[in-house]
């Protein structure tokens, strides 16, 4: 019987050589398994290292993307994005690379419409009742700070004024049931996010810091939205919600009111 390709051996090679070859192959396979094992478990290990309150968002890297840019855009921490995806120390990305962005839930809310926001539609339509203190700035002072801050940041001052009037009537004492604070009604988590742009700590109960946080948020939203309506809606319901769901029906009156206030303010209206 002629040997087949499957069972053919070199007739000149002793059996011990074949056994030795098989043993070497088994050792090599074991070494490969040991070498590859960390890679097989790296994602799970990284997942365990992530702090609580993170949602992993799948993303395909596009031309021009950077780790820092994606972290800012999706409200994640750059170091967590780099660590979870096993990137190098510079966070180098390749076009077409599949990664997961560990989005901070507290910054964007969940995917459910009623909780996905810088603002919560169900709890933030009206600020909570609060009593002004003698130390609180007047409406005229808040108005001046908003105008000065908006102009310094390259933001439409009339839009910032309209947002603040709609949110809190240019008063600092308002704190909503969702814990949105002050004249610009900024959530603490949003204040933390805006510190990345301010380059310093922000005290949301300080008028200037509160206004700066709100104005910087408007500046960021202007870059990340395609229209004035979306920018205003994103301030109210959150940029993530606008991207996923569009403008909520409950947000449309808010958008309409802010735009109307902006036009009145541009026409000289000053209720301070």
Output mean pLDDT: 78
Give the tally of β-strands. 2
How many strands, which pairing sense, and closed or not: the largest β-sheet? 2 strands, antiparallel
* CATH class division of the largest domain: Mainly Alpha
Termini separation comes to 106 Å
Counting helices, strands and paired strands, the structural category is mainly alpha
Strand order of the largest sheet: 1-2
User: Looking at the structure, what is the overall shape?
Assistant: elongated
> Helical segment tally?
11
Order of helices and strands: HEHHEHHHHHHHH
- The poorly predicted ranges are 1-12, 26-48, 107-117, 120-129
CATH architecture of the largest domain: Orthogonal Bundle
Q: The CATH topology of the largest domain is what? A: Lysozyme
Brief account:
It contains 11 helices and 2 strands. With 272 residues, the chain is mainly α.
Explain what this protein looks like in three dimensions:
The protein has 2 domains: 49-105, Membrane-bound Lytic Murein Transglycosylase D, Chain A (Roll), CATH 3.10.350.10; 113-266, Lysozyme (Orthogonal Bundle), CATH 1.10.530. The radius of gyration is 28 Å and the shape is elongated. The chain has 11 helices and 2 strands; from the N terminus they run αβααβαααααααα. By secondary structure, it is mainly alpha-helical. Helix 6 packs across helix 11 (252-266) and helix 7 (188-198) packs across helix 8.
């Amino acid at each position: 019987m002629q040997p087949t390709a499957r069972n053919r051996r070199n007739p000149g090679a002793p059996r011990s050589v074949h056994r030795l070859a098989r043993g070497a192959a088994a050792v090599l396979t074991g070494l490969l398994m040991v070498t590859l094992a960390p890679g097989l478990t790296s994602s799970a290990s990284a997942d365990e290292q992530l702090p609580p309150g993170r949602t992993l968002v799948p993303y395909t890297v596009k031309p021009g993307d950077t780790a820092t840019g994606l972290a800012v855009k999706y409200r994640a921490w750059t170091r967590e994005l780099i660590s979870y995806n096993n990137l190098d120390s510079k966070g180098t990305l390749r076009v077409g690379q599949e990664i997961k962005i560990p989005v901070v839930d507290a910054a964007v809310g969940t995917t459910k419409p009623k909780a996905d926001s810088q603002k919560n539609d169900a709890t933030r339509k009206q600020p909570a009742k609060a009593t002004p203190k003698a130390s609180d700035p007047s409406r005229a002072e808040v108005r001046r700070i908003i105008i000065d801050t908006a102009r310094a940041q390259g933001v439409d001052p009339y839009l910032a004024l309209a947002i603040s009037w709609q949110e809190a009537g240019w008063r600092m004492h308002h704190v909503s049931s969702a814990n949105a604070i002050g004249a610009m009604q900024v959530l603490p988590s949003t204040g933390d996010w805006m510190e990345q742009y301010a380059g310093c700590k922000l005290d949301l109960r300080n008028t200037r810091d509160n206004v700066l946080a709100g104005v910087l948020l408007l500046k960021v939203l202007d870059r990340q939205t395609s229209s004035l309506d979306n920018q205003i809606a994103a301030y109210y319901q959150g940029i993530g919600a606008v991207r996923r769901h569009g403008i909520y029906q409950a947000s449309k009156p808010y958008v309409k009111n802010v735009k109307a206030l902006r036009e009145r303010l541009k026409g000289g209206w000053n209720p301070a």
